[in-house]
From TrEMBL:
Alphabetic keyword roster: Coiled coil, Lipoprotein, Membrane, Palmitate, Signal, Transmembrane, Transmembrane beta strand
Chief location: membrane
N-terminal signal peptide: 1-23
Protein name: Efflux transporter outer membrane subunit
Presence of keyword Transmembrane: yes
Record Pfam families: OEP
Length: 488
């Protein structure tokens, strides 16, 4: 008899022991992302003349460093009306609702119910086979004991998903802020370029009047008139092309700020926007502030938590249940004290054979973790590339602006000298037209370099996560892993 009981006990405990062994075999293996942060960005190691850095905005409104009231108003408008931000906010609200629903499984479940059933043989105790009616009303309570962390793991994963969505909302806001700033600055650059071309058109019109007057007087040939007319028409065409570009950029700005393009306009004013200076020597740890990197890290942590949840499927589940109420064959007697009924119970379950479902679930969760880690590594690599791109652009554009300023000064001087020599008959009209064309081209190129400096500055601020203040460094600031995830 004792041997039979021992055999039965071993048979009952064998599945639980097997589950514990399988879970133990699937645990604890460190997995590093393989991405390290150097102490300094490569581009900042290039020797450049130091400049006074623009102070950081205390409220995080980095665009206010450009000191442009119209830009401030556009960014503030986009913060509430931009559809991309609204969609990201909706996805965050959805993720929070899902997290709350998943977390609800950890609480006792209480419900009220009532029912009626009619049939034969409902009560075998009285031996009657006559049709009878049973009416019930009462409350039920159930609670699952989270002994192995299945429910808490699922709740933690859902909470991390919500945190990832929150970081993605911040990322969407940053992207929209940067896009509004870059679009607005492109609009201001187009306004200045249009002004240069328009001034050139007016100058050619004045020249044409003078040439036509001299042609009528017989001092010049018709060829001279045709050349000036060609230059005038060419510049008028360029001016119209710039008008078309400005209209398209203005319409794009309308969409970014949530406005109807037909009812949106930005006035043409002088470009007085300040250009912030990003300090040199920023540590690469500033990338920790980037919301897209934070979102990717939360996704990795959520995937890791789901691996743990998948492993708990190998463990048994335990639930406590309770019910209390009334049961009666007569509706009039249902709420009498004598019709009361109650019951309590405990349930335990451990699947023995599921056709490989749990193993497949664990492999699927592990694959999702591997994918999340790869996505995180890619995000970090992209972040470094974006910062290095913009740092290189600013360094080279700064040098280019100096060289281009010399080119404009030389071209302007050449135009003055060519005009004087043309009036004295030392050079032909072609020489004068070439000098004017070269001056216009260099002025437009200078403006485009200036515009590129503004665009690269906004791009760098965006790549740094919306600011350029360095976070506090604790301990060694040398190379270190960006993230290290351990499989549980």
């Amino acid at each position: 008899m004792t041997t039979s009981i021992s055999s039965s006990l071993r048979g009952a405990l064998l599945p639980l022991v097997a589950a514990l062994v399988l879970a133990g075999c699937a645990s604890t293996a460190d997995l590093s992302s393989g991405v390290t942060t150097p102490a300094q960005f490569k581009e900042q190691a290039v020797a450049v003349a130091p400049k006074a850095a623009t102070p950081v905005q205390a409220d995080g409104a980095w665009w206010r460093a450009f000191n442009d009231s119209e830009l401030n108003a556009l960014v503030d408008r986009a913060a509430t009306a931009n559809t991309t931000v609204q969609q990201a906010a909706a996805r965050l609200a959805e993720a929070r609702a899902i997290a709350r629903a998943v977390d609800a499984d950890r609480s006792p479940q209480v419900g009220l119910g009532a029912g009626a059933i009619r049939g034969a043989g409902l009560d075998r105790g009285d031996g009657s086979k006559r049709a009878a009616t049973l009416i019930t009303a009462g409350a039920t309570v159930s609670y699952e004991l989270d002994l192995f962390g299945r429910l808490s793991g699922a709740s933690n994963a859902a909470a991390l998903d919500a945190q990832s969505r929150e970081a993605l909302l911040q990322s969407a806001r940053l992207l929209v802020q940067a896009e509004v700033a870059q679009t607005y600055l492109a609009l201001r650059a187009l306004d200045d370029e249009r002004a240069i071309v328009r001034d050139t058109v007016e100058a050619y019109r004045g020249t044409l009047k003078l040439i036509e007057s001299r042609y009528r007087a017989g001092d010049l040939a018709e060829l001279d008139v045709a050349r000036v007319q060609t230059e005038l028409a060419s510049n008028e065409s360029d001016a119209l092309a710039l008008d078309r570009q400005r209209a398209q950029v203005e319409h794009a700005l309308a969409v970014l700020t949530g406005a109807v393009a037909s009812q949106f306009s930005v006035s043409t004013v002088a470009w007085t926007t300040a250009l912030p200076t990003i300090p040199a020597g920023l540590p690469s740890t500033v990338l920790e502030r980037r919301p897209d990197v934070a979102a990717a890290q939360r996704t990795v942590e959520a995937a890791q938590a789901r691996v743990g949840v998948a492993k708990t499927d190998w463990f048994p589940t335990f639930s406590l249940t309770g019910a209390g109420g009334y049961a009666s064959a007569d509706l009039g007697d249902l709420l009498k004290w004598s019709a009361r009924s109650w019951g309590i119970g405990a349930l335990a379950s451990l699947p023995l054979f599921d056709g490989g479902r749990r193993e497949a679930g664990l492999k699927g969760a592990s694959a999702q973790l591997d994918g999340a880690l790869a996505s995180y590594r890619e995000q970090v690599l992209v972040a470094f590339r974006e910062v290095e791109d913009q740092l290189a652009a600013l360094r080279l554009l700064d040098e280019q602006s100096v060289v281009q300023a010399r080119a404009v000064a030389s071209a302007t001087r050449a135009t003055v000298l060519s005009d004087a020599r043309y009036r004295n008959g030392y050079v032909s009209q072609l020489d004068l037209l070439d000098a004017r064309r070269s001056e216009l081209q260099n002025r437009r190129q200078q403006l485009q370099v200036k515009s590129a400096q503004y665009q690269a500055t906004v791009g760098l601020i965006k790549a740094l996560g919306g600011g350029w203040e360095a976070p506090a460094v604790v301990g060694d600031a040398g190379p270190r892993p960006v993230i290290a995830i351990a499989r549980q």
